[in-house]
Amino acid sequence: MSKQTAAPTTPATSSEVPMHLFRKAVEQAALAISITDAHANILYANGAFQRITGYGQDEVVGHNESILSYRVTPKLVYETLWAQIQRQRPWNGLLVNKRKDGSRYLADVTITPVVSEDGDTTHYLGMHRDVTEVHRLERQVQNQKTLIESVVDAAQVAIVLLDEKERVVLDNQEYKKLIGDLGKEPALKLLAALREQMGDAFATAHDKHRNIAAREVCIETPKKMSRWFSCAISWFEEHDVGADAFYEPLRRHYLLLTIQDISEIKRQQEALRINSLRALLSEQERIQGLRETLAGAVYQLEGPLNMLSAVANMMERKRDSGADLPAASALEEAMQKSREALEKLRACIPNQSTEAMQPVDLNEVLVDVLKLATANLLSTGVVVEWQPSSDTATISGHPAQLTNLFKQLVTNAIEAMNERRGGSRELRLSCMTRADHIEVLVEDSGPGIADDLRYQVFQPFFTTKGAAKQHLGLGLAMAQEVVNRHGGIIDIDPAYRSGCRVRVQLPYLAGGNHV
Ligand code: FAD
């Protein structure tokens, strides 16, 4: 009959744990456990040891632990191992082991000296586990990291990774070059430019970690040069690797900024735009010139025709009072032919360009004009002083016509300065916003325009240069026409004595509203 024994009320201390329980626990442990004598000769190996190494208990007992050595572990590692355990301190490290079947594995080994009551090391306790797979994964991650870093480094675009506090975590060679060009920290400068350009849209994308497709921003370098960049933002989420976050994952967001320097493309685009603007303007100039020439010719012919018409009327009246005037009908016929010829001439006048009215920034127009005149200004050694308006100088107008207008005034100024030998050659261009209009001044240091010619110069075919220089005298007439079409005023400032100052005043809008 079995006796009932009372269950212990307090947990058993180690001395109370039966020895066979220790043995069972070691035998069944998932860790490879071996016990050796003081020379590493194996006395005992548990089940896990046998599973991992492939050796049965009988095949290892009596053999040295070196049976597991694959001989690629550096000698120094063993020396360190032994030096440590001989000082009666546990040693932990990685060893390349060989199984019975010859296959290798990486063992994470811990060796603990077993010390007798006399203080001598009598045995060693070896514990190890196969960490080949962990090591493979670690290496794989490391290889991928190296691969990603080298791909990122070799990329032709600048790449930078920022943490949530916008600190640089990773960057590449191209980005490092940008630091040299833009100073520290290019990413922050570009993000500030994007913030300014996108306003609330940037804040929303940033807060919600939404990607931002390529956007063009302009940055001024410390050397006051404009550089253009195409910037794209994407986000990636990292799971916190700390122990705290093991069961409650924490996420960190990183901002990946890719930056492509598009300054050269922008320069080419701008050169292309200026070239097409030049072509457009010269075509417009040609048509305008033709219009003015034909209109001028019609105007010139209308004078004598009106006189002939008066003579014909006089003859008609005389014939009505009985006078015999055979030339009258011939004159009438000639006049009819002349009128028809004049009408044909009028019909040949090309139509005014149909360019639509639109908001035009005069600051931009004047910059374009200076770009168009750059070659001319450089070849004539003219020094330019350009003063844009600090406020937006937008009016409603025809952009090409306005560009042509100021181009004409700048060309006139350069030609006037060329007339005078010696002396300074200064062109001053300024744009100012007034209460109800924008004023543009084109000043040159040329000979100026005499007071009595101030109004005449705006008449068609009037020129101070003479026919020899192939000047039709239509430039200022055309300028006048463009200004009229925009409801503005153009005049020559009589008070200006150190050359010529042409003043153009243009209202903000045809209706008088500021655009
Ligand atoms: P060895 O000639 O055995 O030793 C190389 C160097 O180690 C020597 O130059 C010497 O400096 C030192 N050394 C070796 N034996 C002694 C000793 N008895 N006293 C002082 N110094 C010594 N090795 C593995 O490769 N894999 C294992 O899993 C492994 N587990 C071990 C478990 C335990 C409990 C112990 C005590 C040792 C273990 N070793 C293990 C170490 C092993 O005993 C050998 O030292 C090692 O394998 C190198 O063997 P070897 O024949 O190349 O060189």
Please tell me about this protein's structure.
The chain has 515 residues and is α+β, with helices and mostly antiparallel strands. It folds into 4 domains: 114 residues, PAS domain (Beta-Lactamase), CATH 3.30.450.20; 107 residues, PAS domain (Beta-Lactamase), CATH 3.30.450; 65 residues; 150 residues, Heat Shock Protein 90 (2-Layer Sandwich). Helices cover 42% and strands 24% of the residues. The strands form 4 sheets. A 5-stranded antiparallel beta sheet has the order 2-1-5-4-3, sandwiched between helices. It has a 5-stranded antiparallel beta sheet with strand order 7-6-10-9-8. Strands 12-14-15-17-16 form a 5-stranded mixed beta sheet, with helices on one face. Strand 14 and strand 15 form a beta hairpin. It is rod-shaped and about 160 Å long. The N terminus and C terminus are likely disordered. Bound molecules: flavin-adenine dinucleotide. The site of flavin-adenine dinucleotide (FAD) has 22 residues, from strand 1, helix 4, strand 3, strand 4 and strand 5.
